[in-house]
Fold:
Amino acid sequence: MSQQFDVIVIGGGPGGYIAAIRAAQLGFKVACIDEWKNAKGGPALGGTCTNVGCIPSKALLQSSEHYEHAGKHFAEHGIEVKGLSLDVGQMLKRKDQVVEQNNKGIEFLFKKNKVTFFHGRGAFVKAAEGGYEVKAGDETLTGKQVIVATGSNARALPGVPFDEENILSNDGALRVGAVPKKLGLIGSGVIGLEMGSVWRRLGAEVTVLEALPTFLGAVDEQIAKEAKKAFDKQGLKIELGVKVGEVKASKKGVSIAYANAKGEAQTLEVDKLIVSIGRVPNTIGLNAEGVGLQLDERGAIVVDGDCRTNLPGVWAIGDVVRGPMLAHKAEEEGVAVAERIAGQHGHVNFNTIPWVIYTSPEIAWVGETEQQLKARGAAYKAGTFPFMANGRARALGDTTGMVKFLADAATDEILGVHIVGPMASELISEAVVAMEFKASAEDIARICHAHPSLSEATKEAALAVDKRTLNF
Ligand code: FAD
Ligand code: NAI
Structure:
């Protein structure tokens, strides 16, 4: 006799575990199946985000930033550091501890919310009376509703599989045991810039090869330009418009043949290569075909605006469906689906999902870019304010970048906010709230912001929309 559940969630990443908790809060009997194994073979809830994504990358970004500050910036504060040394092993150990705290935290949340957890692979067996039969490792469950949250995997270059020794995905990139002398990255997207920054700060000579001729094409051009200037200054070498050819790994390292933007043949020799050219939706082993679950040409599960698949009672959320591959997007979809199952009106506003790149300077944005507004012929006003003119940024010693507001020319409604600079990841929240409430730039300009704080740059950029900054 199989165990019966109201809701079965397949995948325990940010999409799946949050969906499971919300469904349990709403009174459903919930199972969550996740197959991720920690180094000892035990469960490691939290998916890509917790194990090999958001959390460990931010832990290493923090550690490497401390190292760079101690080596390069403490002196200007009158702090002398003698005999600075680096223990990569300890850095990785701390990162692993941070990951484990998060794994355990989710296990605790499952117990607290009475979500039944199954460690193993989840796979559809067949449609059953009033729902679906689903394998959870060796056990068989039946669920009235199934939420698929199986995430994504790193995309490899055609014919160049990851060996996680020399040719690394995000997984291997977070486990390099010693600083490589020369590090290559293919793809100057989010992972390329974050992981490139980590290893550059720790002393690697980093070269990033990017196929597109423009740097960070999805980011507001003015902001991307400012960020590129900062990365160039830091010595992060980014080559745009390249065509990668043969990639050969040997005991000595990796050799990458490529054509540069002028079409000239080049070779890059590195000790390690990180391939960060995007991610592919993951439905491996799910038996999607067996139950007729529809996938698109990219392998993503086809869903409507409410995350309904083509099968009644089957939903899909997060990286395995369309839309940005972001943890908070997956979480929002998880909550919304659980609420829809309960007959409520869960909603995700795709126009106000913030993006953050955790480099230094950080890059964060919400809403439309200036190039998008131009492309759709929108009448808009822009206002910018540089951190150079912000007292708190000067005190921090971190004055790179700016806040930029884009507002409707007629109504002053905020259409987009773009930040490159210190703590952009935190500052962007104010813009998200403002846009959710359909605020105008003037609304932000009239709000009292604490002094001295970086958030004053946000207020000033809003004032700049009306050409009336006070401190610039
Ligand atoms: P996942 O987190 O991928 O979780 C899916 C889970 O399902 C996994 O545990 C997997 O083992 C399990 N699973 C899959 N198939 C089965 C099956 N058949 N049976 C049982 N279990 C199964 N996003 C951000 O918002 N901010 C960041 O700072 C950020 N940093 C990142 C850094 C890196 C290096 C990477 C790679 C990604 C980063 N992301 C970040 C993206 C973020 O990790 C993903 O968007 C997010 O994890 C997607 O959540 P998900 O629940 O859809 O899938
Ligand atoms: P990405 O989509 O951000 O960047 C991939 C880059 O590789 C693009 O610039 C693309 O033009 C380039 N590229 C593709 N094929 C190429 C080729 N053959 N040669 C050279 N360049 C090539 O993907 P990335 O960095 O792998 O990250 C995957 C996803 O993970 C992100 O899109 C994001 O959704 C998520 N993520 C989010 C983070 C955050 O929120 N801070 C951090 C890291 C990842």
Notes: The chain has 14 helices and 22 strands. The chain has a mean pLDDT of 97.
